Amino acid sequence: MLGRVNHIAIAVPDLTAATASYRDTLGAKVSQAQALPEHGVTVVFVELENTKVELLEPLGENSPIAAFLEKAPSGGMHHICYDVADILAARDQLSASGARVLGSGEPKIGAHGKPVLFLHPKDFFGTLIELEQV
Amino acid sequence: MLGRVNHIAIAVPDLTAATASYRDTLGAKVSQAQALPEHGVTVVFVELENTKVELLEPLGENSPIAAFLEKAPSGGMHHICYDVADILAARDQLSASGARVLGSGEPKIGAHGKPVLFLHPKDFFGTLIELEQV
Lengths: 134, 134
Prior knowledge:
The structure is a homodimer.
Chain A: E1 5-11, H1 15-25, E2 29-30, E3 34-36, E4 41-47, E5 52-58, H2 66-71, E6 76-84, H3 87-96, E7 108-109, E8 115-119, E9 129-133
């Protein structure tokens, strides 16, 4: 079911500072910041050779990463996103295995414009997993 | 400086259960468990198309992931490892930037038999970063 690691998401309290750190201190290629108000985040992509890291800063009142940053104010690794070929087939297989899909269970259009689902971290040893249909 | 994402490490309290979850529920290719007593962990590699996830369970009395699992007993994302071409050059450049290298500052031989260093998570927005010379 799992394809490529699409991205690793890191929540940060200060996107400008984090971007500078990855660009200047770690010498990585970084994108411009993109505000995604419908997803409650502003994102910078750190482009690695084989995948990307996404630096996420809360945007607006109901950011999905606000609670995470309340618990970890300095930031931290938030989730891993894997490609899947068929997200509905993946969902049905996961649900049949007893794994919980967050929200309504219907895929939403994610930050890359493709259908995504999140899986409950308690079912995967504390790791929040996103699946994206590619 | 940063090359490929070498691996994403996830600390888990029960490696057998976590391996079964990635293999059976998520449909990923997983390795046999390898005990690495000199590193204080037992590891299973989850082979993705473009990188790997490493599931780590504490081994022995002074496991480097024991404190993490005390704080997060269910497990969680522990660190990201990036390839670098020259670990001493990377270290010197990072130190000159004010980033803290953990331990003595001298690379140790990591779980893959190659020189590694860890960077202080407080200098990188709560993310523990490992660098591995490839």
